Amino acid sequence: MMLCENNQIVEGQSYDIAVIGAGAVGMSVAYGLTKLGQTVCVVDEGDIGFRASRGNFGLIWVQGKGARHRAYGRWTLKAASQWPDLAAELLNQTGVDVGLSNPGGFTICLDEQELQARVELLDAMRDLVGEQFEYQVLSPAQTQERLPAVGSEIAGSVFCPLDGHVSPLMLLRALFKAHTTAGGAWMVGQAVSAIEPQLSGGYLIRAGDRSVGARKIVLAAGLGNRALAAPLGLEVPIRPVRGQILITERMAPFLHYPTLHVRQTSDGTVQIGDSKEEVGLDDQTTLIQLSRIAQRASHCFPCLAGVNVVRSWGALRVMSQDGYPIYSESLLHSGAYVVTCHSGITLAPLHAGPIADWIASEVATGGLSDFSLSRFHVQTH
């Protein structure tokens, strides 16, 4: 493969696979494909794009995912179980510690109605997925035994030993380094303007004044997938859902487990998030939501009252019509794949594993049909 020293593409070079999108989903797939010996180029528009991978909460979260969809619950369980292997593999190959911690996770409930709704959700998930999905319902006193800093006025909590968290930024760094170290290339800085199927097979991807050829393409561009996929006969029903996040100044360690709304990072800062807003492509923050988020966090952990907030931002989740991942190949254009989900951190081991295997081999592993576009009856035939 002809590469520049920094692994940028050489004009006119062709690859086995081009992955469009360098977020957690795209880089996980790209890394998995390079491990399989494929020549891979990652194409990304750069910082002009929406960045779900830099604005997410970093949770590896099982509880609640799949409460109404057996395949998704089992897919999530499988991903969480493979995270220790992925973290160790990336550390060995790149020297980058992604900050994996998987002690289990808590959902703290402020009133009885909220607690009951949570228990009903997890009961439904266990009924669908089976006994391998574990959780415990804890009283306020039992919660405080595990989380000494928790507030005294909570209704209780739910603990799942399968949950954990990781540093999203260190994960991206490790995936990118592993991809490039293995010979993977990249083309970054301009949005993809066209994907042109070639008469001789394969695709030409144009981005500004540059282009790259590939035998196959993987659309992993988050919210950009909808527009990119349509000319290839793939109608991808996704929408943005905004989440707002607060970051505090560094604090002495007080929270050794991730919770659904509050987690303390390895550097001592506290990440707080608790919003799901249908506001289109608006990724700004709002005072009303940030105030509500801060109030809930202080109710759960009174030690946060008066702590300085040093950063805040809004980010857009990539949400499918039914909330579950989409893995599909175009029926009109062989070798054109779409990979999208709103759980790119949790599902990273599977995107680097079975999904990469499927794209490279063109043989779908068991269960992938549950996540194809055919469930929406919208793929063009």
From TrEMBL:
Entry-linked Pfam families: DAO
GO CC terms in record: cytoplasm
Highest taxon of source: Bacteria
UniProt domain FAD dependent oxidoreductase: residue ranges: 16-358
Gene3D superfamilies: D-Amino Acid Oxidase, subunit A, domain 2 (3.30.9.10), FAD/NAD(P)-binding domain (3.50.50.60)
Keyword set, alphabetical order: Oxidoreductase
Keyword Oxidoreductase: yes
SUPFAM superfamilies: FAD-linked reductases, C-terminal domain, FAD/NAD(P)-binding domain
Positions of transmembrane segments: none
GO molecular function: oxidoreductase activity
InterPro entries: FAD-dep_OxRdtase, FAD/NAD-bd_sf
Protein name: Glycine/D-amino acid oxidase-like deaminating enzyme
Organism: Advenella incenata
